[in-house]
Write the C-alpha cells for this entry.
Amino acid sequence: MRAVAVFLAARLARALVAVWLVSTVVFVVMRLSGDPVPLLLPPDAPRSEYERVARELGTDRPLPVQYGVFLGNALRGDFGRSIHFREPAVRVVVGYLPATAELGLTAFALALLIAIPIGLLSAVRRNSLVDQAAMAAALVGQSAPTFFVGILLILIVSLKAGWLPTSGRGDWTHLVLPAVTLGAFAMASIARLTRSAMLEVLRADYVRTARAKGLREQVVVIKHALRNAAIPIVTITGLQFGTLLGGAVVTETVFAWPGIGRLAIQSIYNRDYPVVQCVVFLSALLFIVINLTVELIYGVLDPRIRPR
Amino acid sequence: MSELSRRDVLKAAGVAGAAALLPSALPGGAHAQTTQKRDLVVAQGGDISRFDPHFSTSSNEIRWTFNIFDNLVSRHPDGKLYPGLATEWKLTNPTTWTFKLRSGVKWHNGDPFTSADVKYSFERTWDPNVKSRVNTVFTTVERVEAPDPHTVVFTTKKPDPLLAARTAFYGGQIVPKKYLEAVGGDTFNAKPVGTGPVRFVSWTKDDRCVLEANPDYFGGKPDFDRLIVRPIPELAPRIAALLKGEVDIITQLPPDHGERVAANPSTRVVGALYAGLYVLAVNSKVPPLDNPLVKQALSLGVDRDIIVKELWRGRGIVPNSQIAKGDNHWDASLPPLAYDPKTARERLKKSGYKGEEVVIETTSGYTANDKPMSEAIVAMWRDIGVNAKVEILEYSVRAQKNRDRTFKGLWWSDPTSTLGDPDGMFWRLLSPGGPQDYWRHAKFDELGEAARFSIDEKFRGQAYKEMTKIFLEHLPWIPVIQPYEDYGLQKYVDWTPNPNQQFEIRRFAFKFRRA
C-alpha cells in the first residue's frame, strides 16, 4: 500500500512539473505569436486607442511581469478574463466542456465497441476475408484526412440520403456523424493494434498449453490471450482517449460542433491568451490523469509491474 | 492542395445531391416556395462574441445588434436613411442637429424609452471609463442634450453634414440607461435589453443564439416567432445545411458556389452590391511605388473584366474611382478603370522603373478571393514587365502590419462605406493620420478636410470631383472590384439584403411566403 502511495506522490510531482512547463511554453509562444490589440479594434482606430487597450489588457507591461501575474493567478485557478468574450476565461472554457465530453466520449465508446471485437476477430481468423476487409477499412480510416471524411459523410449521409442533420448540436442524431468522423482514426488504430498484439500472444507457449488442456477456444482467446495482449491496447486506448477529448479541432469545425477544440483554435487566432492558457492547462491535466490511470490499470492487469 | 481536393469533391457530390433532391421536391410542386415555419434560422461563418453594441464592430455581431437595438436613424437596403427611434431630424444651425423621438416606445424589459437613453448612449461611446470600442465614431460631437423627453439636440464641434448618417451605423445603437446603470456592463452584455424587433433569449457559444420576436415593436412584429443564429464556420457544411433545408438563410456565399445554390430547386441566391470597394492599398512611401507613373502602370495593367468574370462569376462591377457606386457624389460620367497593357508598359518605361520587387501581401480567405485575385494580378503585372510577387499573411499579422503601417508594397483592403458618403469611405482611411496614411498631397488633404465639414452638398460634390482627379493620378489605392455580397436562401424566404452588411429582419425587408 505504501509503495502505491509513494508511486502516486512521485507521479503527482512529475505531473505538476509537466503542467508548469506546458503552461510556460504556451505563455511564451502565445506572446511571441502576436498582439491581440489590433484584432480588437476597428482598422481605422487611432494610435492612442491601441495604447489605451494595451494598457487595459496589460500587454504593454514587460514579459516577466506579465508572466509573474499569470503564474500567481493561475495558482489560484484564475486564468484572467477572456479578451474576446469579456468574461472570465475559466467560465468560457467550462461552457464548452459538455459538448466536448459528449462528442469525445461517444466517439471513444464507438471506437472501443467496434475496434476491439474487430481486432480480436481479425487475429483469430487471420488472413480470412473478414480479416482482410477489416484491415483494409482500418487503413482507410487511419489515413483519410478528417475533414475529408467529415464532408463526405455530410454530403452522402445527410444531404443525399437525408438521414441525419448536416451539422450543429442537438439530439442524438446530430451526434452520429461527428462521432463516427472523430472516432474513425482511433477505431482504426485500436483495431490494428489489437490485432497485432493478439497475433503475437496467440503464438505464445501458454496459449498452446491452454489449448492442449482442451479449453474452449473462447476461453483461450478472452481469458488467456486477450489479458496478456491488453497492455499495449490499454496504452494506445489511453492516448486515443486524450486525443479524442482534446484534439477534435477539425471535426468540431466541419460539423459546427461547439467544443473545446474549436474554442482553442479560434482563441489562438484571436490572440485570446487567457482562454488558450486555460484550455492548454486543462488538456495537460487531462493527459496526465489519463496516463496515471493507464499506469494504474497496468498494475491491475499485470501483477509483475505493480510498484513494490 | 487540400482546398482544391475538397472543392472538387464538393462539386462532384453537389451535382449528385441536387439530382437526388429533385424527385422529392416535385410532388409538392409549389410546396417548396411557401412555408408554415415560425422560426427563422440563419447560418453565418463566425460566431457572435458579445452583445454590447458599443463593444463590437464585427459583422458577425452587428448583424444582430442592429436588430436587438434600434438607431435613431435607420439605413434601409435601398441605401437611404429612414426614421428609426427618431421620427425626424434637421440641421437647426450649422453646428446643431435636432432629433424628434418616437413616443410610446418601450424597452424589452418594459421600461419607457426617452431622450435620456439617447443622451446616455452617445456619451457612453466616448466615456473613457466605459472603454468602448466605438469611441471614435462620434468625434465630431461636442455635446448631446435632452431638453425634453422627446427631443435630443446635438452640438457639433464644426459643421457635420453626416451626423444623421453616423447615428445610423455602428456605435449608434441606443442602449437602455436605467437597465445598464442598474445591472452594469457585464450583465448587460450577457443579457442585452434593446428596443428592437427581436429580444434576446439565450446564447450558447459556437452553437446557437436564440432571439424572439418583439410583439410590441413599433415597426410591427417581425414575420417569425423566433430567430435562431447558428455559426457554421466551414463553407461546405454551411451550404449543405441550406440545401437540406435546415437553415433558411446563409451569409458569405462565395461566387463560385452560387451556381450550386441557384441550381437547387428549393433555394436561390440574392445579393447586394457591396457598399464599398475591394482595393489594393499602396504603400506609396517605398520605391518604386512612390512614383505615380509606376502606380498608373500597375492600375492599367490589371484586367478587371477578367477578374470579375472568372474569379467572381460576374458578381461584381469594375469601379471608376475611389468612390463606391451607390454613395453620395459617385460620378456616373466616369468610365470604369481601364485595362491597357500597352500604355502601362509605356508609363513603366517613362517612370525609370528598374525592376524593383513589387509585393502584394495578402491573407488567404479572409476577404473573398483575396489570394486568387493576388495571384491573377501578379501574373498580369509580370506581363507588363513588373517584378511582382505574392506573399501570404495570417490575418492577425495583417492586423499588426495595419496598425504599425509596415506593409511592404500593396495589400487588400475592403473599406465599407459606413456613411453612404465618400467621407466615411476613402477619406476615413486615407486622411492624414488615418490608418492608411502612406501618401500626402496638399490639395487633396485640403479638399478632403473642407468637404468633411461643409454642409453645402454642391461644394462637397465639387471637392470630391477634384479629389477624384488627383486620386486617379496618384493612386494611393488601386481599386479592383465592387463585388456583390451574396446570400443563399430558401425560395420561401422573401428577404432583401443590405449593401453595408447590416442584416435587416424588420418587416420592410423580411417575410416568409405563406401558402
